[in-house]
Design a protein that fits this description.
The protein is elongated. The protein is 43% helix and 16% strand. It is α/β, with parallel strands linked by helices. The chain has two domains: 2-89, no CATH class; 129-242, Ribonuclease H-like superfamily/Ribonuclease H (Nucleotidyltransferase, domain 5, 2-Layer Sandwich), CATH 3.30.420. The longest helix is centred in the N-terminal third of the chain and has 19 residues, at 39-57. Strands 3-2-1-4-5 form a five-stranded mixed β-sheet. 19% of the residues are buried. It has eleven helices and five strands; from the N terminus they run ααααααβββαβααβαα.
Length: 244
Amino acid sequence: MKYAWIKQHATDSCVNRLCRLLDVSRSAYYAWLQRSTTTTEKSDKVLMEMIASAFKKSRATYGTRRLKKVLSRQDRVVSRRRIGRLMCDAKLACKTRRRFKVTTNSKHNHPIAENHLARQFKASQPNQVYAGDITYIYTQEGWLYLAVVIDLFSRQIVGWSMAEHMRTKLVNDALLMAIWKRKPVKGLLLHTDRGSQYASESHRDLLKLMCQSFPGHMVKQLYAPIRNLPATNSHWLSVSRSRL
């Protein structure tokens, strides 16, 4: 371990000084450099390449637990401790998940419709049942909020809106896009949560034009891959680039 540490820092400091610091002889250190590579070192090198590849594909979000599963699927049984050591040697630091941000305010005085969908999240034809929700994306310029409307028949996004706020206009714009694109007939069901934006008077007035509103929860899983991306990802560096 001492020799490895000296080798690691040899480009930043004098070898003589490092040897004196760790109380080892120069001759012993240079003899160690000339020795043949051990089986463990060869194995570590191969593992490090596999770990670095999986870590890069995860956008720096995988820790030792998930990396161990990735290696296991490649028929490599490795302890989390060894993976952690190799990550430390390669200076691979896992990015932590951003704190949870509340997007639903159900404490309001607006009227709430009954849940007629009753968790039956399958539609038999297009433009029969839509689901709407709001999520958040962290950028280096601050929080950005995304409202979407999806068709439960195809799971396709039919309307969306992004803004730096969570006012009612955010969800109204997403629904207006869906109505403009799809032009659904009367009788369409819209399934959302009981947040103040969806229960607001302006949103209910908009719903009277084409559809009926039924609150609930459906599209949270749609946002997970987006929300967990680190802000250092090139797409999330700024609010303007996130809109792209």
